[in-house]
């Protein structure tokens, strides 16, 4: 034990110092309280949702839940036992029992089942729909957004026009998602007569994330050093050649990683697709029974966020709905979290790699 | 001898590399590419313009339709009956006041004076007689309102049927089926004749009113003394209320006398009925009202709760991370909060339904928290539940932008402050935060924009009751269910007839939200630009 050497500049305990550290603790607790709230929500969904998705036996993942369409759950008493089955399974079971009874010369047993909508089966069509919506809308948004960012960062000179464009981008970022939904309905669904379709959803979502993509792309383009462009131009390359060969390749990783946050936003929004692309329920998968290739774009799909909304507020609540609610929420949160986390990690990595 | 041809032009100099430039419409390839990108740059502007256009395209006819709606309300005599109905309803409210008075008297007598319930009831017998007589007094008026309601509804139905027929005929005409269209009989409603039974009751009404006035005057004088002395104040207050009620009679009579079904409804009425209407009532048998006030109030209340939570937490966390935390903590906290911003709102809404609503309600039943206004909470889903979750949505927005603002405060400010001997806390509260204040305020405004525009959480958790909360309960109003502007669009848009007045009303709500968000955004940018600190 050594007593600290005392010196004249040593911090002395005083009232103001205690007060200061108290205030700092207040700020610290604010920061950690936010984290705790987020962690609590996350943990609740994961803990209650995991049983619907994972199993204790091989293959440890509930494949039915992830690969089949939603169906009604039938609950019935049979031979003194309470059984739960999906609708299709229940019908097969009933026929099988009837056949067995016929073979044994008995009367077919009458099975009375109570059914609960959406409580059995899985969410495969919703996953497919969400993936289709994300891929399509991000393709549109990246095409438009990157082109717009290239103009803003490479060609445009500061002036009233550019200021106006920037103002529009900022304002577009603040428009509520439900307004995008209304706009998509007014323009694509009604005016262009696309009806409730993938295409309408794609454009609505793409317009919604456009500000995110433009801002992210412009930032990445700006972070490519000026020397790259000057070197290329000095060698006699044209402006377009410079952009294509000396700027875009270095900006592209940044553009993509920052845009992933836009992907998370697209995947997570419900309001814009409510009236433009989402169906409450649809039997067929998007690639089944297509009359022509064009029909693919003009069909509505099921989507994860909308499915969560439907199962948590539109159907009667009972003990069996909780499984599908938490299961869907878990899968959805997992997908979105994966996207967001990969964006954050990639960005940190990228910052370390490109240093000029 | 060779003669050289006269050099008409200087021969082009020969380069080792000759490059031919492609050109389209007189533009080189490079210029074309520039034009292409330039065109793309305007996409944000175009989208904003398209949003504005299509919202107005669908919504702008609402005001015409609403005017028509109000015109029918007047012409079919519904407005006339509503004058009387309001008089009746005011009386019902007074009667309810009397019953509440009695309840309190019973509680007072049984708990303070330790009387048995039977004794207490006996003590209140005189009061009950009085209350009964007070309630019965309105009988004749109530009967008249009920009769007239039927008449007015019948006229309105007739009118609606005619409208439908007219539309059918129009459609047949457009389809070129003239003969069939002429077969559709439309009889114009003769309002003069139809309204006769209603207007004929004028005399009878005045008679009833006179009797009512006399009855209330005697009732006022015969008001029994309060059953317990503590309630005497309430009784006096009740008397004042009755007197005020009596004073409204002449104006009601004047309204009824001046009423004329032929008076046109001006267009501004259609606007003001929307902007200041206190009722959003659809698919009702009597009269549909499209007033945005209850929805707007709901949105504001939910946002207020959200900001009340998000401002201290978001700004506090930003200050902590930017000024106090170590570099390692920064690297941990910042991505985590960014991660929270990726939570889909529908998942948070579901969490509110499944967990938070019930948790808040059971917390509100704890005895030592009863001093809080509004506790215990009656409804699981209310403005508070939605507000808490919206707070979690707003925090990352506010945190990120506020942290940026603090980051942009020049280092020299801080160094100068330290050099003058200020402590860390003094430097933060007096120098850094004030210098970044404009950024923080704009962060809060953008957070507000995010919260007002959020749909799924309020749709799932706000309780969806379309009524202005009862503000007489003070802060307790915040635990009542509300409905919001975003929520109503999401909820009702799927169920309305395309092109109908209800459908258009929802689009007008969308227009309202759109301009509200533009306004908030504009204000936020203005504040940043106006109060930006310049380092020089």
What would your notes on this structure say?
The complex is a heterodimer of chains A (356) and B (536). By secondary structure, chain A is mainly α. Chain A has 2 domains: 72-121, no CATH class; 124-353, MetI-like (MetI-like fold, Orthogonal Bundle), CATH 1.10.3720.10. Helices cover 66% and strands 7% of the residues of chain A. In chain A, a hairpin with a 2-residue loop joins β1 (70-78) and β2 (81-86). The model of chain A has no long low-confidence stretch (mean pLDDT 84). With 536 residues, chain B is mostly helical. Chain B folds into 3 domains: 27-59; 74-267, no CATH class; 293-530, MetI-like fold (Orthogonal Bundle), CATH 1.10.3720.10. Helices cover 71% and strands 1% of the residues of chain B. Chain B has 23 helices and 4 strands. Chain B has helices at 29-41, 43-59, 62-75, 78-112, 117-123, 125-136, 139-174, 178-183, 191-199, 202-221, 232-247, 249-258, 267-275, 293-324, 327-341, 345-364, 383-407, 411-419, 424-435, 437-453, 456-461, 485-492, 501-530; strands at residues 23-24, 27-28, 280-281, 289-290. The longest helix of chain B has 36 residues, at 139-174. Chain B is flat. The mean pLDDT of chain B is 84.
